[in-house]
């Protein structure tokens, strides 16, 4: 357990504080909607990525948009559900987000999340993750948690939402720091996404064989937020989601891959697309998808050597 510093006192810069406060308010609402069974309400439509949207995907998207509009410090937004950048009524930041990561595991009652990235200015286009101001994810599990990394602060930080009966003015005061993530070491824990791509990605098949013959422990839910977040919490291991011709990359560079890379690298881990750090890839369009690997230095180097960028 850490020092229980509040999120409010952790954040010093006023406009970033307003932006993150808006996100925590939205996350508290999304978490309460999920607890009421909102995710079980059925289908809505199809988004620009071709994903079947649940009503809760659309609802969470709107909850976050509304909160960011109210903050007055957000110039533009875009999300997995509405991927074109558009004005958000304020000035200061561009915010990109995946409102609900893990739609397909809502019915199984696994942990799901919200992923976000924040950049000073009006657009993400042409910018690399290394230039971002902050990024993080909310986890909706038995607890509601925020894992946050800020460019001007060392390390990644976990805050836990401790709801209080009265809704007082200091919303961020409800979020208490529980852990600081400083290092991800090599360790025998693997979370292998898109395993179906081993059929025509022989490098990935070799890597899976390596993990199995070295008796790695499998820990994979199919939700990127809990699956990547566990590397921080356990302080070891590897997560990947490689691609092949028959099973192309699924994860979205702007809405999923770069924000979690920002967290992992702040926590002393590495990220890669099989060749370079995900923080060194400029965003050319908001709809790009990407192959990813996160984890300890040696684990990511092994991924680059064995899987690389074949596709
Ligand atoms: P989303 O629910 O935001 O559309 O994305 C889910 C992602 C990610 O959470 C997970 O790692 C990946 O999809 C799993 O994909 P498959 O179920 O296709 O393996
Ligand atoms: Mn989706
Ligand atoms: Mn997602
Ligand atoms: Mn989503």
TrEMBL record:
Instruction: Give the range the annotation lists for the signal sequence.
Output: none
User: Coiled coil: which residue ranges?
Assistant: none
* Annotated Fructose-1-6-bisphosphatase class I N-terminal domain residues: 8-152
What is the native source organism of this protein? Answer: Galdieria sulphuraria (Red alga)
Which keywords does the record carry? Answer: Carbohydrate metabolism, Hydrolase, Magnesium, Metal-binding
The Swiss-Prot or TrEMBL record lists the needed cofactor(s) as: Mg(2+)
Under which name does UniProt file this protein? Sedoheptulose-1,7-bisphosphatase, chloroplast
GO cellular component: a single term: cytoplasm
Matching entries from PROSITE patterns are given as: FBPASE
Give the protein family: Belongs to the FBPase class 1 family.
Q: In which pathway does it act?
A: Carbohydrate biosynthesis; Calvin cycle
Enzyme Commission (EC) number: 3.1.3.37
**GO annotation, biological process:** fructose 1,6-bisphosphate metabolic process; fructose 6-phosphate metabolic process; fructose metabolic process; gluconeogenesis; sucrose biosynthetic process
Q: Does the keyword Flavoprotein apply?
A: no
- Enzyme type, top EC level: hydrolase
Tell me where in this chain the Fructose-1-6-bisphosphatase class 1 C-terminal domain is found.
185-306
Supply the Gene3D superfamilies for this chain.
Answer: 3.40.190.80, Fructose-1,6-Bisphosphatase, subunit A, domain 1
The record ties this protein, via Pfam families, to: FBPase (PF00316), FBPase_C (PF18913)
Work out whether the entry's keyword set contains Metal-binding. yes
């Amino acid at each position: 357990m850490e020092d229980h510093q509040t999120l409010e006192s952790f954040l010093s810069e006023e406009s970033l504080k307003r932006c993150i406060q808006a996100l925590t308010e939205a996350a508290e609402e999304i978490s309460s909607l999920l607890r009421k069974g909102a995710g079980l309400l059925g289908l809505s439509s199809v988004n620009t990525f071709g994903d079947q949207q649940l009503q809760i995907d659309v609802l969470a998207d709107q909850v976050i948009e509304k909160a960011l509009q109210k903050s007055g410090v957000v110039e533009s937004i875009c999300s997995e559900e509405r991927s074109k950048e558009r004005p958000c009524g304020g000035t200061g930041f561009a915010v990109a987000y995946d409102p609900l990561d893990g739609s397909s595991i809502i019915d199984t009652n696994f942990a799901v999340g919200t992923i976000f990235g924040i950049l000073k200015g009006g657009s993400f286009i042409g910018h690399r993750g290394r230039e971002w101001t902050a990024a993080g994810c909310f986890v909706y599990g038995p607890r509601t948690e925020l894992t946050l990394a800020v460019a001007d602060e060392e390390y990644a930080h976990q805050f836990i939402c401790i709801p209080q009966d009265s809704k007082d003015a200091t919303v961020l005061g409800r979020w208490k720091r529980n852990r600081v993530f400083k290092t991800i070491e090599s360790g025998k824990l693997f979370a292998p996404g898109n395993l179906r791509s081993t059929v025509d990605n022989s490098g990935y098949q070799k890597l899976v064989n390596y993990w199995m013959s070295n008796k790695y422990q499998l820990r994979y839910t199919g939700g990127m937020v809990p699956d990547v977040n566990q590397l921080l919490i356990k302080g070891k291991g590897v997560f990947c989601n490689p691609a092949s011709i028959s099973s192309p990359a699924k994860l979205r560079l702007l809405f999923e891959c770069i924000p979690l890379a920002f967290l992992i690298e702040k926590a002393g881990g590495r990220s890669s697309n099989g060749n370079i750090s995900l923080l060194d890839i400029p965003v050319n369009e908001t709809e790009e998808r990407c192959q990813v690997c996160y984890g300890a230095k040696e684990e990511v180097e092994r991924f680059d050597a064995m899987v690389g960028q074949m596709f």
